[in-house]
Design goal:
Number of domains: 1
Radius of gyration: 19 Å
Shape: elongated
Number of helices: 1
Oligomer: single chain
Order of helices and strands: EEEEEH
Length: about 90
């Protein structure tokens, strides 16, 4: 699926892009002279493709962190249940 960017304006007049792959929004970034700056990041990505890759990498990292937290909660529940999780 192709990468698509819809450019929009902040109220202060600066430009930002909403990045899509197909119909799925993958992130937003501010347009600067020499590339794109992702939200909550400082590094300038020189191309739209590199910005999109950084957005997807960030999403994967967030999911890994959430998975680690969930696995720890499962381990805590297992200890609370005496080593055996209840069956559904």
């Amino acid at each position: 699926m192709p990468l698509r960017i819809e450019e929009r304006q902040h109220p202060n007049g600066t430009t930002y892009g909403v990045f899509f792959i197909g119909k799925e929004e993958i992130g937003r970034a501010d347009k600067v002279f020499d590339g794109w700056i992702l939200q909550r990041k400082r590094k300038v990505q020189p191309t739209a493709e590199k910005a999109a890759k950084a957005m997807l990498d960030s999403k994967l990292n967030e999911l890994r962190i959430a998975e680690d937290r969930t696995r720890k909660l499962l381990d805590d529940l297992r200890v609370h249940c005496g080593g055996q999780l209840p069956h559904n």
